[in-house]
Amino acid sequence: MLKARSRKTKKKLACPVCGFGRLIDASIDNVSELKAESEITDDWKPDYFQKCPQCKNQIGIRKIE
Ligand SMILES: [Zn+2]
Hints:
By secondary structure, this protein is mainly beta. The chain contains no helices and 5 strands.
């Protein structure tokens, strides 16, 4: 059996507040913007929310690509 696991398929997005490096997994070609819930403005619509396990902030995630 050949294990071809050399190509990365996902990456980890970091928390924009505290820098916690494993906030959420994303596809390797995914481009996202992350903002703390308190910094989200009306013209910035997040697609997802993820609570940071380290600083407990609710992080909004917007997929760009
Ligand atoms: Zn955090």
